[in-house]
Amino acid sequence: MKCILTGLGGRGLHWLKAMKARDDVEVAAFVEPFEGSITRAVEQHGVPRERIFPSLDEALSSTQADFVLDVTPPAVHHEVALKAFAAGLHVLGEKPLSDNFETAKMVAEAGARAGLKHMITQNYRFGAQPRTSRKVLGEGLIGAPGQCDVRFYMPWADFPDTPGTHYVTQPFMLINDMMVHHFDLMRYVLDQNPVTVQAITWNQPWGWHAGDACHAIVFEYASGLRSTHVCVGCAVGSQTSWNGDWRIEGPGGSLDWDQAGTWYSHLHRAELKVNRRAVEHLSVKPQEVAMVDEFFAAIREDREPECSARDNLESLRMVFGAIASARSHRKVELNSV
Ligand SMILES: NC(=O)c1ccc[n+]([C@@H]2O[C@H](COP(=O)([O-])OP(=O)(O)OC[C@H]3O[C@@H](n4cnc5c(N)ncnc54)[C@H](O)[C@@H]3O)[C@@H](O)[C@H]2O)c1
Questions:
Q1: What are the strands, taking DSSP E only, across the chain?
Q2: Distance (Å) from CA 164 to ligand 1 centroid
């Protein structure tokens, strides 16, 4: 398969390395308008300068390709996808699908109308903890979950060398750019979509984000389940992992994640008390390998990929619902977003 890689920023270079490690992909062309990113890609990562085009139009007119791997900033994703679809190319696009929900819906529809595969790289859900947790919850390890609490404390988007990036200048970027991973994880692990959201967001005086980087968010589900997300995105003390620390509570016990592992406990009124018994993780492929394998399989089998743009709208609904709630200081019905 031949691809055009758009965006040679930090994540684009990460993807370049992942694609070079495969023997079934050739990166036939690159698109990058910013000289600083071009120079770094050429001098430090061996990208041939003559294969880098300043626009996708120019790359498309001189390159035969099967798909576009889009690693541009969120505000650009729809432009790239629409141009790729118009040229008959599938799209593997970085999250978030868009920084605007109406645009996200429009672009997901455009891909479906064109009959092309459009997959969003929600890589977190391909990790061992989410895959294992979804499986053991589905097998009934703790019964039907009633509450899921996620805590996230990390110095998110701390890039002192590139102070003007969208991560630190745009409003609600932590929820838009990072929480889309955790909200997608909630949907995946709990295997249901929430129906309401209530969010309060704020900032710390020592933080480096223009947009709010701290929050407390509650989602309600039709089953009666509630999930909470509490976060400091400018944490300077102890840290969780990027997955966050999780506790899922059910009538038959709890499932916890932390950096050390995944744990099952059942202490209260249990015939056999279990305290933090390690849950053996499923063996999983590296995330980029798993995602590209899934994307290629969907093309080969002509089916919707996991994390299709259509499915991803439900994760984005949680993002934009939480932002709407934070702005309005009210609970938001997610089907109104
Ligand atoms: N899945 C993950 O874990 C993960 C991690 C980091 C970033 N990301 C995502 O990857 C994307 C890129 O992030 P980044 O950190 O590399 O951002 P970045 O700002 O470092 O790089 C983006 C690059 O895209 C270039 N660009 C801008 N407009 C373009 C256009 N029209 N065509 C081609 N290139 C263009 C910029 O000049 C820049 O070099 C974002 O959507 C981000 O959310 C995902």
A1: 2-6, 26-31, 52-53, 67-70, 90-93, 118-120, 147-153, 194-202, 214-221, 226-232, 245-250, 253-258, 261-266, 274-278, 332-333
A2: 13
